[in-house]
Glutamate 5-kinase (Actinoallomurus bryophytorum), 378 residues
Amino acid sequence: MRTAIAGARRVVVKAGSSSLTTAGGAIDAARIDALVDVLAGWRQPDGAKGHEVVFVSSGAIAAGMGPLGLPARPRDLAAQQAAASVGQGLLVARYTSSFARYDLGVGQVLLTADDMMRRSHHRNARRTLEQLLAFGIVPIVNENDTVATDEIRFGDNDRLAALVAHLVRADALILLSDVDALYTGDPRLPGARRIENVHGPADLEGVRLGGSGRVGTGGMVTKVEAARIAGVPVVLTDAASAGAALAGEDVGTYFHPAGARPSARRQWLAHATTGQGRLRLDPGAVEAVLRRGKSLLPAGITGVEGDFSAGDPVDLYAEQGGLVARGLVNYDAGEIPELMGRSTRWLARELGPEYEREIIHRDDLVVLAVTEARTPAG
């Protein structure tokens, strides 16, 4: 028995397109009803109001393919947006009808990656989802494919589901696919073995991760990545095993969370934002940020890359090494070259008291990789 799953009170469940549609791309009412039966039964055990579920549903583009006469998923963005526009309404109407059999209402929440990256949008999305749950509504979340561009797309709903799990502080995440578990190789070939538990990268050494799904964009690579960033227990299995997964039974692949769960703010910084530029750090600054939990001061910066504004997330790199951390910067990119290598005391004396502040405060920093700073030769 997986007690962390069985005892969860709030769960995010994600279903891929291939779990919800026919081979031709049309909505499969029977599949949707079967999944809703499981979710409604888990949410209202013995008819009493109990658990909370947020449902991340793919399928809008796939559902729009049939009405538009598209034989396969379109490749160009405009056609995908048109298909999503047609399909999203059909999909939500089907969920509304299906959940109504249990006297449960649904609310549609469409997000873009930009919504997750901007702190104010992130807070608004969280408040909306929390209020829907307080009203007893089942939120149906999907990427807003009708307006998302290539630059601001999640790319797949696995990552979206992991970020939503952060957003609502869920206790667990269930990823439903057309494959019943993660295997050591292609499950259609002899010798492939189901991986029951993943505690860390070592459990995935030698595993070949291929794509899956008839009409979706995800694959095993995206699911493993989603499990890595979720920060909560994750089960990967197929839609037919959804009930068993929610009950904590030994189905699919169970990804154990690594370490203590970080704060919501640091989870947001690490996984929902994209660095808008880079700052290069000398070895002393790397040591201070990486191992001593200190703020980033102007004296430790050796280079600035990109065009960003105060308040934007920026990535911190070792001077001759890799990614160290990400944080919310207190200065525009154009201001920092004048400040580099200076102490905050000197800056306050020469430029004014408003400059006696960190480049990035430690409360606005999250470590992303343990990177050794390399000292230049000579």
